Hints:
- Among the domains are: 4-62, no CATH class; 74-132, no CATH class; 199-362, no CATH class.
- Strand 18 and strand 19 (469-472) form a beta hairpin.
- It starts with a helix and ends with a helix.
- It is α/β, with parallel strands linked by helices.
- It is built from 23 helices and 23 strands.
- Strands 20-17-14-11-10-23-22-21 form an 8-stranded parallel beta sheet. It has a 5-stranded mixed beta sheet with strand order 3-9-8-5-6. A 4-stranded antiparallel beta sheet has the order 16-15-18-19.
Amino acid sequence: MTDSSLEHLARAAGISTQWTDAFGETHALSDNALHGLLEAMHLASHDLASRQLSLLRIEERNNVIPALITVDVGDLFAVPPIGSRPSFVVLYNESGEAQTLQVDDQNRCQAPIQYGYYKLALGVHHLTLAVAPKRCFGVGNRLRHGKSRAWGLGAQVYSLPHRQDGGLGDSRSVATLARAIGKAGGDALALSPLHAMSPGWRHYSPYSPSHRCFLNWMHADAAQIFGDTALRHAITQAGVESAWTHAHEGRLVDWSIAYALRRNVLRHMHAHALHADPSFRDDLEHFSVEGGDALHRHACIAARQSHAVLHAESTSWHRWRDDWQREPAAQRFADDHRGDIDFEVFLQWLSARCWEKTCDEAHEAGQQIGLIWDLAVGFEPGGSEAWAHRGCVLDGLELGAPPDAFNPAGQRWGITSYSPWGLRRSGFQPFIDLLRANMARGGGLRIDHIIGFRHLWVLPQGGPSTEGGYIQLPLDDLLRLTALESWRHRCIVIGEDLGTVPAGLRDKLAVRGVLGIDVLLFTRDENGDFLPPSQWRPNTIATTTTHDMPPLAGWRQGIDIEQLSRMHALRDGELERRMQERQADVARLDDAMAAPESGHYDAKSHIDFVARSRSPLVLIPVEDMLGRVEQPNVPGTVETYPNWQHRLPLDAVSRLEPVMQSLDRALNEAAPA
Length: 673
């Protein structure tokens, strides 16, 4: 039986001592789980005296004057108790104009009716007041010419080919597809995550980034900036013509080869092509100055990680010989490796300019939303983002998921995130920077696992997920800041609200204007029958499947069941039983669509069905438009499946054109309730 003082300490630390699974069953965290989580938070818990000391530490942490307060426009907010209660406070807007706010007898003020960031002066103390709109910037705010609904495609960037891609999809591939979507009447292209990655990974995942504010330079097509001739010259000078062609012809992405080829070629471009035109050098210098300390700190870590790969070291700064918890180690490396750091800044400049060009091409083609970026839920504990914000990270904890029917042992994701107390202490600055960096790059932002705004399943690093638990996050603060930044950037917000969603969270997200996701394969009633589109949620984007599920053609064939059988060695008859259940589900779906009994996947029927939903934005994965069967990612697999590696055929865009035209007609003809 759990000691009440242990439970009290856990709750004070933001840990939920109970959790509810996908079937509605409540589970209590064991004493071992509570001790493990508290110890990872550096809160001693194994006897009453240590718990009392830990409670005092939490109380001291909570009594710190906040650096930032969030409030909705026009609402009341509490004035922090600093000294004697004032009768008024002074507020400064972003232009420096002052206004006086009266403080009522309950120590509250009324927020301005104009959203934005304000400086709040309380005597000698100053803090930030973030005044948020009630809702995020919406699809309707983005559309013009009388449009009320829009459509677009979703693409895994690495999978999109072009003739000079060297085996990896890039910004030119995306630009080609974006133009085709705009020409067909579409308004959006949702991308897989493009965050900066650590080098030297054995198993690549775009959801395990090094730093989410910066870009994965491997997806930058240098020819967009320097021209095809300069790129071909660099490939020749690097001596990789044959390897570049061979990589292009592969059906799967070989990430290690792609990394080596691109780094070699871009080294040559940095040394030669950059100096062909003074405007390039001037623009790079401007970018470097504008990026400031954050850019150069990332470049320092990235250069050190590349150095580690060359010397067969770990890329985690926790394991480097020098103590990188302290600044002198970084400064010594920067002094000795200035050229390597300059190269990393160049890579970020090239990436930023490539994606700016691609974004412009999407809008020039007629897209009214444009690129939708994907924000991963966390980052590597030993990567650049964790180093830049060392005082705000859930140090010693990693993210995962609780046990469920598919993963009885739960999941460990090997990534971490920000602590709620670290965010508050920093005035939420890392989170604000993250929103700004990603929202500035396009017309939309998909937030992966937005359930993490409410709570995160955490576990001690390296420990079993069954010994994890949920830690509470400041949901209202995160949503207000998201809404505020979405309006400042005119950026729609999509929250991946799939899986075990806490009660009431979807309603709260809807009120805030965060679009949920309705997935065809999941939109069913309590009997398992597929819901008609008129009953789908109106405050979502509508889609057919996700990157963690097979495309519809593969789902109909049961390839995910076959993969599950290979992973878990299903008992005799179990595979056959599940395949029979799948065929029954396929028949249910065909019945719901009133589709002809063709016995095979028909993209038009499935897409037309989704287009009849009430969603303001329909996003269809490229794989479903093409009738592909390969699943981009199979959760829980590492060695047994080529996750994040499948490439599309070279003629993919031309094959998409008639299907996109059909989708455009279907959306225009649909009359959502």
